[in-house]
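Collaborator request log, item 7. Partner lab (contact: R.S.) asked for a structural prediction of Short chain dehydrogenase to inform their binding assays.
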Amino acid sequence: MKKAVVLGATGGTGQVIVAELLSRDVEVIAFGRSKEKLEALMKEHAYHPKLTYALGNIFKYKTMLESAKDVDVIFQCANVKYQEMESKLLLLGESVMKAADALGKKIVFVDGIYVYGHQVAKGDENHPHQPHTKKGKIRVEFEQLIFSPKWKSAKALIVRLPDYYGPTSQNSYLQPTLEGIAAGKLSIFIGNLKTPREYVYLPDAAKMIVNIAEKDDSYGENWNIPGAGLISGKEIIKMARHITGSNKMVIPLSKNAIRFIGLFDEFMREVVEIMYLTKEGFVLSGEKYEKRIGAIPKTPFKQGMEETLQLLMYK
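Returned to partner:
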């Protein structure tokens, strides 16, 4: 891979993929709607000679054509708000795939695990797609759209991440907890504090995603991006307090608490239906990655938390 475009480059996953590509000497076009955020990204990378940016709207496929015409791979990291998923997600997929197909490009979609629904075993890529939530059902439709036979020239793959954390993270369930502790303020934890859960450190995820994207035989498939192991909310809070020196209260929010908050907050209203993930602790199998790509990068939680919290404390 010599050149790539990253759609949604200023988001949590977009930023780490940009950084990973640059570390491999790949020429990168950061694509997004906000000139201010894109210029901040350029500054963050000290105006790297191989990093440029392009303004455009992923819902208007023609705005992507010029930026993506000479690239080897398109990385689709843009997303829609929870409360807009039903109305906008399929429109996003249609637009991005239309651009990739018109150009005959490889395209990598970064997605989550809602398609699986309740876990019946350690989740490999063949785990049944039997979602019981509206978000999960929409994500299944999204996958079907991406792999539709109507696309004659594009080659797509999907990478699936569990919940995540890291210096660039913006909208993960763990984010309000870490931001509150880093600021020395009362904060919340979404879900059960005792359930061991999987979190992937975003720089590790970026390494795996780019490794997968570089393999020609990876396309046309789903790929898991597993974390470094399981950790409970209680352990995360203890670790974060040790790193920051903060002892402010962290309030765990149950499904009922979030349902109540959802009466006044549109985002929290949408979180209610996926609370099963915080109770069941869905775990992704990395066997396919290890067999076909190589060793899974596993930054220890302590190191990942230190790097994340250090940045949050000095924001």
